[in-house]
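LAB NOTEBOOK - FOLDING QUEUE
OPERATOR: T.R.
BATCH SIZE: 2
PURPOSE: Compare the predicted structure-token outputs for two unrelated chains run back to back under identical settings.
PRIORITY: normal
REVIEWER: second-year student, initials M.K.

ITEM 1
FIELD SEQUENCE / FIELD STRUCTURE:
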Amino acid sequence: MFVFALAAFAAGNALLWPVSGLAQSQRGGPRIEMIRDAEIEHYLRSLANPVFRAAAIDPDSVSIYIINSSAVNAFVAGGMNMFFYTGLLQMTDTPEQLAGVIAHETGHIAGGHLIRGRDAMADASTQAILGMLFGAAIGVASGNSQAAMGAISGSQQIAQRMMLSFSRTQESSADAAALSYLDRAGITARGMEEFMKKLGAQDIVPIDRQVEYVRTHPLSQDRIDAVSHHVEKSNSADKYLDRKFAVMHERMKAKLNGFLQPETALLRYTDKDSRLPARYARAIALYRTNQLPRALALADSLIREEPENPFFHELKAQMLFENGKIEEAAALYGKAAELQPDSALLRLAYGHALLESKNPGALDKAIQNLTEANRISPHDPETWRLLASAWGRKGELSKDPLYSGYASYALAEEAAARGADREARQYADRALKALPKSSPYWLRAQDIKISMDKSDNR
């Protein structure tokens, strides 16, 4: 299910949740949106994890986020958080190019280059750092990927650029580290070289019209030459990624095009183009332009061609869910979750669809999948909100007061994840009164309350 962060998070995990254009700030400026998508996040993880391991970084310690913006940029902020603009994802031609960007940003993390950016706010939370970057406090890096990011005014853009920029020495250091990570991971650095040369063409463009990545990552010919020299001598120069990564990369770009620029996608991917990525983009674009029957027909053709692809089942499920066909959507989300059981987003989608079905017999399965989604990704406020709803409904049906305690606890987690300290404390208090003392959820509710009290005393 593609989900716009500023839109209501409904049942699936495919990319963008339908909204009429990009959300606007109260002052009329464009807002930056986060995107959640099981398929694209799976691809980025598959590409990045070998690089993280090569840098001796635990992949589970790094959070990856996607920003819906045509700007070309990627950055790390607030600790182990890596952000990619959709503009950059669409500008890369190959998975090797994107791996080069990932390796470079990993070099900034491993090199401790973020410390300089925190000197003036040693005690600042990740939310505060990101708030400074984007003009509004958000909780993305603590799990609240749905919080709205503020409009970026001209002065805020300058502040953002200063916060994200590194010195030329640090950029060269990150390049050197990236090259070593790629070698250790057995990935050619030719993609990194290609992308840097593509960005190098920006040198002849006026500074105020250069892509954001060049403005925040000073690029010199010396850096490009150093990468080219490394490629000439590297034993990994011809070690390209498995073909499956090229397939995932092409589908990512088709998917982004279909969801973000549906009208353009329909012109670019005509019905005469029978390639699978083209049909994928068309199915999404048709759905986004309210041509559901044609979109469903294409989705069915994709499923017939690759019946074990969870993301094709997911796409059709989103189409159906958004058009009120909840039972059919739930079955498809269930199939997708079965095929990709380690995806928190697919589990969340399935649990939500089961919850929306209003079928009392599906309630326990909804709780099971939402709980599993929480186990995989414990800081997503939407999962906690839905789990609170499921536990509340279970309490109404069973007349067991214990479930009201579970629901209060879940709401405390949800509030804590989005930075609503007062709400979190209130719900934690309710949970402590309703849950058995020293039980796991009681202990966690106590932790939340203590954390909120400490926050008040700072």
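ITEM 2
FIELD SEQUENCE / FIELD STRUCTURE:
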Amino acid sequence: MVIIPKEKPVIENMNIYYLDIKKLLEHYQGEIGSGGAYFKSHAAEGVIFFDKDDLLNAFFEEKDLDLKGAQAIDRLINARGKYNFTVSIYQLSFAEVYFWASIPSAEKIYEGLSTEFTDLEGLIRKMSSEKLTGYIDVTIGGGEEIGIIFIINGKIVGGSYSWDREKPGSSKKNQELLIRKTKESSATFSVCRIPLAKMKTQGASQTGPNRPSKAILNMLEELMVIFEYAVVSRKNMKTDFSKLLKKKFVENAETYAFLDPFAGEFEYSNRRIDFSGAASDKELIGGIVSSIQELAQELGMRSELLNSCAEWSDKYSKQLEKFSVKL
């Protein structure tokens, strides 16, 4: 899928015959930091996404060939004598560039939703409220027309439409037209999510003020294991622990967005924590500890929790004191 938002090119329609693509990319990595180089000819097209340090991903398409990743990068960088490309450079924010570079890794979370049961406007509102990062793929009249709405953290950032193929962008008019077309004709929808972890692996830094430390993740992982064991050890426990936990996380997602199970940022399974979201140590500790406390209270096992976690509390007393946390 060769798609890039193209509202404001930094420079456009440069003839590849006169260009050294490697040096061109190096120049704009330093000049604008992050963005995309879009290649277009009558027979093929492609795009290379970059940040200031790396070439993040690339896509190349011609009649019978689709390439991505390193193969696409190699094909486009060495395209000078094979394709009569024009090249345009587009500046993207750090969040946007990882989004566009990660689109092929998107996972379908809903497929084949029909206008018989689903309204596109309602679906857009639902995905926005759930802070979706991904896109809604719309097929109208069995494939006569298509539209794609791109969303980052619940905010619409653009779209691609079969009636306006040359201008992917955030046009409100096209979105309204798409909604109207789905009301006038039968349509089906698929919703695809890009897990933040996969966006990160395209080149985004895993460290910084909005990323919890490994030590805190290990600390909370130990707490989760202790609590899970205490819950499942109860003889009268009939409900699955993971279901109880997800229900509690949903309740607390308004305060701690990273707990929303639909976002897929915080996952606990097989006694392991996998966290791909953005949160400080304090925020992550607050969300997890308060959820455990509330769940323990609801299950009538507050004292059991305190007894089970006595050794853990001693081990991490400095961290708990630092963040003013008490079980």
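REVIEWER COMMENT (ITEM 2): The two ends are 49 Å apart (CA to CA).
FOLLOW-UP: none requested
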